[in-house]
Known about the structure:
The complex is a heterodimer of chains A (198) and B (74).
Chain A: H1 11-30, H2 33-50, H3 60-79, H4 85-100, E1 101-104, E2 107-111, H5 130-143, H6 146-157, H7 162-169, H8 173-196
Antiparallel strand pairs in A: 1-2
Helix pairs in contact in A: 1-2, 1-3, 2-3, 4-8, 5-8, 6-8
Chain B: H1 2-7, H2 13-25, H3 27-52, H4 60-73
Amino acid sequence: MSHTNTHILNPAQWLALYGNYLFSIAMIKLNDRQLAEDILQETFLSAIKAAPNFRGESSEKTWLTTILNNKIIDQYRKKLVVKSATEYISQTELSFTQSFFESGPGVIPHWLEETYPRHWGTGADAGLNQREFEDILNACIKKMPDKLKLIFMAKFMEEETADNICKEFDLSSSNYWVIIHRAKVLMRSCLEKNWFLK
Amino acid sequence: MLSLKKEDGKISLGERARLIIHLTFCDACRQFIKQSDIINKAMKQLHDKLYKHPPHILSAEAKEKMQQQLNSHL
């Protein structure tokens, strides 16, 4: 019982159907047009090679997105001085903690006066001019340190499970929580500064 | 951090108890939780839009080049 998968995959349509979508993901994560184009190209070529192994367990769109995301992760590994998450966290621990939290002997770290979350306006006056809000959200994503950005996107934008993320990024469970926490704190702080308190 | 674990459904009973007690008197952390939720929703919206209204568009030349490359391998 053999049948080809060509009725599930439709490479001739990939660019038309998913081109801009995949390109947008690459642009948000890499912030480099030429690089994003190159990686998209490689993604399509890899996908064609892998097509015979496609078992239809996920949708065509999801499958292509996964290939793209893996290539983006590879790109980050090449670009960054490859540090383990543990090293990264411990090296940046002091500056991060001191920027946001009060701590000391016997004190459970808690918000510093300058950094504790304010009330964000809600309702009509927050207006949330959708377009402007999105611009600021995107700007804050760009500002995030590379190490945190990909994981933040994977979790909150692409809603991947913790297990998958730990596997993809080679994280222990406790590193995962520290990174998620830091990314959230930074994002929240950036949004508050630039949007909600303006 | 405990609040984020709770969001994910990965909080232990003991941690949950500590969190609830802390929140009864900590407005800052209550705000953090509300805002954390706003961020979650905003990111999800961003994702949903990516397919219907992609924020970045391939240039005509790039598209052309890519299609040709694709075609040559089909």
